[in-house]
């Protein structure tokens, strides 16, 4: 062959090789993609917390906001609802989501977990996992390891078959195993250590061609990279000298719990924490969350995590841009990118500019980038750097991409008009509610007559029986009251005591509502102690125990119990206390309305709904309501205003918009200042208001006309005041 052809062949071969054989590695400074060290800016968007119709827009906004990477957990419980049965459809179409990211020209950090925490039901584990014989979660336990390996392999193989890894030309450049194992693992001692080493070996053997991380893990075995998470990344013990510094979760805000306030994180502090991370030599950071979204259905963990997972993220729950957070961070990202070459090519030289002021200078060869920081939370500082004077606002960092001119200060907003959107104010607008023809169906309380009843001596754990197929479990028993009891002849009424491990309880005596009791976000146990109306002869006691999201964190959280586990007792009888903890109890999983599929337009059995005009004002507890509405014109996001309702669940066209609860936020809402070490408690909002009033109804779930809204109300409320509202951006 002629030499020029050999040369051409070699060039084509090399070009082809480069195109196909992309590679991701790392060194002490950064993640290295195709031979280049990169400063990578990432944001968490969980595909399960929005709809496929929203993904493209969310990802585009993330890209426009200056992000390179989208980070998502993988949610085992939605993908494998029963062992070996997989679901990757609709909101759970992981591959489609990743392709959307790829199409936008962005990378993916795939956090497989499969333990994910995330305020997600059971931390992402399927509930059936708890009932695998001999299992113990997240430790050196064969049944657990085998299930975890099975799911991890399933996901990795799916990714490989779809060519999703960067080495195959796909978007995934990084992957995570486990989550925040550090402290839990230490509590498990040697078993924890063995498990972690096993997990590290397992992922290496999977051969994905991308690096793996362990989040908040200061002793991750090689070659896994340790990462930090938190409001700051400062307490992080540095990685080994040959690994980069990665911040997998820079918390952009905080999640909310029913009964608690809404937390905000000022963007000046978030920007400060990011700049501080970069000036120390950090090279990859991820906003948790960039878009928080919605815990649709019964997906929120907890208990008591709200349906909204807004998180005060740069993109709000509905996918709209939140200003000035989004714009300020976008500017920060631009300036960090201007410094990228200097940052990845050298270590910072740190000099003191004052007692609480420092300069971090990156100056390889002809480059020079400087970060001037003022850690004083109260006072601005005048500093001199390279013979030039600079004023630094309190608790702020100025970035000088050329070591001369300040391109950005974390505490100063550039003009809002320059940020790139005309307006910054977000508000709910009332639209015509359009709800019509309200109808009502009272949940059937005659549960003892049901065929699908389990009976047992004594009290049983709730999830063991429901396997989380419903939030609701009925506990019923009866007591035969002697007609000679003094309370039947003018004496004081007896009291019923019920103790439950959570999370809410409604009590019915002889088919009549007697009262309710709720756990709180600080104390999930429930205690009911009230006088009740009994008559002579047989009385029926029915307890409806309500689960509100399974725990998602803590050592061995799979052992936490839910439901009425006692004691249950009557007080005030002539013979004193009457212990009901060990009598015969009947159990019924779920509501009658659930089994009849009332949420759909085609219920399984014919149901007689009552026209609302025939209903008295005060609604009784455990009532189903339904109405129809037409979709408002336009494309602004929609929500249901549930302020007039008590507690329950709601569905639109058969799709669950989630749990609602109009419970009021207690907290200390004293206003919030950006400067000083941030903790959620310092920035509380909404005290005295319902923690959550609006519930996202995705546009894509609606037809133009006759959309069916079904509400199951546990306590009583006024459905005629429920309305559909639009969320929009308006000018200040
Ligand atoms: C982290 C955890 C996340 C999430 C977060 C709080 O520690 O890794 O999954 O739970 O806390 O929102």
TrEMBL record:
Gene3D superfamilies given in the database record: Galactose-binding domain-like (2.60.120.260), Glycosidases (3.20.20.80)
Organism listed in the record: Lactuca sativa (Garden lettuce)
Taxonomy of the source species: Eukaryota, Viridiplantae, Streptophyta, Embryophyta, Tracheophyta
Signal peptide (from-to): 1-22
Protein name: Beta-galactosidase
GO molecular function terms attached to this record: beta-galactosidase activity
UniProt domain Glycoside hydrolase 35 catalytic: residue ranges: 31-335
Beta-galactosidase galactose-binding domain: residues covered: 622-707
Catalytic activity annotation: Hydrolysis of terminal non-reducing beta-D-galactose residues in beta-D-galactosides
Entry keyword set: Glycosidase, Hydrolase, Signal
Family: Belongs to the glycosyl hydrolase 35 family.
Residue span(s) of domain Beta-galactosidase beta-sandwich: 358-412
GO BP terms, alphabetized: galactose catabolic process; plant-type cell wall modification
Domain of life from the UniProt record: Eukaryota
E.C. designation(s): 3.2.1.23
Pfam assignment, any one: GHD
Transmembrane segments: none
A cellular component annotation (GO) from this entry: plant-type cell wall
